Amino acid sequence: MTSPRPRLDQPREVRRRFSRPRYDPEIFGEASERIARFLGTARFLVYMTVFVTLWLSWNFLAPAAWRFDPYPFIFLTLMLSLQASYAAPLILLAQNRQDDRDRVQYEQDRRQAERTMADTEYLTREIAGLRMALGEVATRDFLRSELQQLLKELEGARGEEPGGPDGRGRPQADSATG
């Protein structure tokens, strides 16, 4: 049997002679976040200002033979451009990772809010049910008001009856006892 002829309507398989370097995206992302965090600090600005000041001072004040980057400072511009070209993607990568974390946090917060809302609605229904059930049960305030009303009625009934021998509505103490 012979090997099948390659078809012209399908692309060939890519054969790689060299393997690509592998890296862990999580470690690279963490490193980029640390760098981006440092680039956003006052310390970085101070270091960069000191570096540029020393560079300019050296190339202005040093003897002509020792100057390595004369007046237009092309090499300094190249270095700053290189630094910026690496800083921008690292900062964007760090922002994307932060956006991903924020998105996950937002989703968790949304789920928690839904659970809280469901719990609140459940408790509201339970409280409403308890209030309806309590409408049929005598409460403390209701009993207190009924007892006070009965007490007033009893006191009123005593006042209408002829009180006892002393006329105050209380039975007189036995004269033999005291």
UniProtKB/TrEMBL annotation:
<feature type="compositionally biased region" description="Basic and acidic residues">
    <location>
        <begin position="153"/>
        <end position="171"/>
    </location>
</feature>
<feature type="transmembrane region" description="Helical">
    <location>
        <begin position="73"/>
        <end position="93"/>
    </location>
</feature>
<keyword id="KW-0472">Membrane</keyword>
<feature type="region of interest" description="Disordered">
    <location>
        <begin position="153"/>
        <end position="178"/>
    </location>
</feature>
<keyword id="KW-0812">Transmembrane</keyword>
<protein>
    <recommendedName>
        <fullName>DUF1003 domain-containing protein</fullName>
    </recommendedName>
</protein>
<dbReference type="Pfam" id="PF06210">
    <property type="entry name" value="DUF1003"/>
</dbReference>
<feature type="transmembrane region" description="Helical">
    <location>
        <begin position="44"/>
        <end position="61"/>
    </location>
</feature>
<keyword id="KW-1133">Transmembrane helix</keyword>
<dbReference type="InterPro" id="IPR010406">
    <property type="entry name" value="DUF1003"/>
</dbReference>
